[in-house]
């Protein structure tokens, strides 16, 4: 059976690429945590990297709102958001593991998850920021899965986790030599485009990380309502859905919190969590 | 869907660099191609974040629109309206 050999939750804010110096010692600690994960990812020798990310009104708008969308084309480009240099945006290409992406698409739909698919998926910072930190050579083919966390109605936390679990089962059903890595990106508490910009709830962020690391994810799935998430964590906290999808792929696993920083200069809580994939119960 | 065309204008502007440059140079020539009310055009030209919020424009789109004018995230609402265009 195929194996998930690496799974982690990481921030995706563009500042992880262009705001390290601005954040001083905090920024340096974030960079070091990413460097550690980068080395661990490489050591895991994955054949593919599944990325649960989001879309900040770059690919999708109210005229077309998929709840989940998987990229199945040969490669992905990037949107110009003022994060990557413009010439980098134009030349940005990351290969997609098409065979795995299409297999996930077909089997997940068979399992009752009506994934949308895209032959031409362009990535925003929720994908390319962690890609540039973790696999800057673009030598690990990705499987990008966009989770709609911006536009209501959003998929429920449990639906996201269950999609992750289903994908974990799909990986298990594949070739026994296949090695797959997974990341969920985003969060944690922060606000975007509202008067309360700069709000961070470090206590809630630490609680979230602790519950995932100790395999108490059910407490989140059962009790964290949409109202609670936005009131206590800001509208940006909706991004925990990508972390929960990641956690679902290694259901039952514990994890190690590599870092948490309340990044005042970035306006967001930033956490990095690596799951102990050998403790998964899938 | 509230203010659908206001939001669609912002979405298209944010994805299209030449359109962005054209808009900054001659906002009316771009705004006139969208089915907007006079009040919506005024709000967009004044970059009035409070008014956009009042129209229930999505917060991410408010952020993207104000970024077109180089407005820092923390100043979106504190300095609103921003009035980036010279009036005659």
Largest interface: A-B, 20 and 21 residues
CATH architectural type of chain A: 3-Layer(aba) Sandwich
Task: Give the oligomer, counting copies of the same chain as homo and different chains as hetero.
Answer: heterodimer
Provide the CATH superfamily of chain B: Dioxygenase LigAB, LigA subunit
Radius of gyration of chain B: 12 Å
Question: What is the mean predicted local confidence, pLDDT of chain A?
Answer: 97
The amount of helix of chain A comes to: 25-40%
Total number of helices of chain B: 6
Task: Report on this structure.
The complex is a heterodimer of chains A (about 280) and B (about 90). With about 280 residues, chain A is α/β, with parallel strands linked by helices. Chain A has one domain (about 5-280): 3-Layer(aba) Sandwich (Protocatechuate 4,5-dioxygenase, Chain B). Chain A has ten helices and eleven strands. In chain A, the strands form two sheets. An eight-stranded mixed β-sheet of chain A has the order 6-3-8-2-9-1-11-10, with helices on both faces. Chain A has a three-stranded mixed β-sheet with strand order 5-4-7. In chain A, helix 4 packs across helix 6 and helix 6 (about 155-170) packs parallel to helix 10. The longest helix of chain A has 20 residues, at about 25-45. Chain B has a single domain, classed as Orthogonal Bundle (Protocatechuate 4,5-dioxygenase, Chain A), CATH 1.10.700. Chain B has six helices and no strands. Chain B has helices spanning about 5-15, 15-25, 25-30, 40-45, 50-55, 60-70. At the A-B interface, loops of A face helix 1 and helix 6 of B.
Question: What is the topological layout?
Answer:
The complex is a heterodimer of chains A (282) and B (88).
Chain A (H helix, E strand, L loop, with lengths): L2 E8 L4 H4 L5 H20 L4 E6 L14 E4 L3 E4 L7 H6 L2 E2 L2 H13 L5 E3 L3 E2 L1 H10 L7 E6 L9 H16 L6 E7 L16 H12 L3 H7 L2 H8 L6 H10 L5 E9 L4 E8 L7
Helix pairs in contact in A: 4-6, 6-10
Chain B lengths: L3 H12 L1 H9 L1 H5 L6 H9 L2 H6 L4 H10 L20
């Amino acid at each position: 059976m195929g194996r998930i050999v690496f799974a982690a939750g990481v921030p995706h804010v563009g500042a992880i690429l262009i705001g390290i110096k601005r954040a001083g010692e905090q920024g340096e600690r974030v960079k070091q945590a990413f460097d550690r994960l980068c080395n661990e990812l490489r050591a895991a020798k994955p054949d593919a990297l599944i990325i649960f990310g989001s879309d900040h009104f770059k690919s999708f708008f109210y005229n077309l709102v998929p709840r989940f969308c998987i990229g199945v084309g040969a490669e992905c480009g990037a949107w110009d958001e003022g994060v990557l240099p413009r010439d980098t945006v134009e030349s940005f290409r990351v290969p997609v593991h098409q065979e795995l992406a299409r297999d996930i698409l077909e089997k997940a739909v068979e399992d009752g998850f009506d994934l949308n698919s895209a032959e031409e998926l362009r990535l925003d910072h929720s994908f390319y920021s962690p890609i540039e930190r973790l696999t800057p050579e673009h030598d690990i083919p990705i499987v990008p899965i966009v989770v709609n966390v911006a536009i209501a109605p959003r998929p429920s936390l449990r639906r996201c986790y269950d999609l992750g679990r289903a994908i974990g089962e799909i990986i298990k059903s594949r070739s026994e030599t296949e090695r797959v890595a997974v990341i969920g990106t985003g969060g944690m508490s922060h606000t975007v485009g509202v008067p309360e910009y700069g709000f961070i709830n470090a206590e809630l962020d630490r609680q979230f990380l602790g519950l995932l690391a100790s395999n108490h994810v059910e407490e989140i799935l059962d009790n964290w309502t949409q109202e609670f998430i936005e009131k206590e964590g800001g509208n940006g906290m909706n991004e925990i859905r990508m972390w929960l999808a990641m956690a679902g792929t290694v259901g039952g696993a514990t994890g190690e919190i590599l870092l948490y920083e309340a990044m005042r200069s970035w306006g967001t809580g930033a956490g990095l969590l690596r799951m102990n994939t050998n403790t998964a119960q899938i | 869907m509230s203010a659908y065309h206001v939001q669609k204008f912002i979405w298209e502007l944010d994805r299209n660099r030449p359109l962005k440059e054209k808009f900054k140079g001659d906002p009316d020539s771009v705004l006139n191609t969208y089915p907007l009310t006079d009040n919506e055009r005024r709000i967009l030209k004044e970059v009035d974040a409070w008014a956009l919020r009042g129209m229930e424009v999505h917060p991410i789109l408010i952020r993207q629109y104000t970024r077109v004018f180089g407005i820092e995230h923390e100043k979106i609402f504190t300095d609103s309206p921003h009035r980036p265009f010279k009036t005659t």
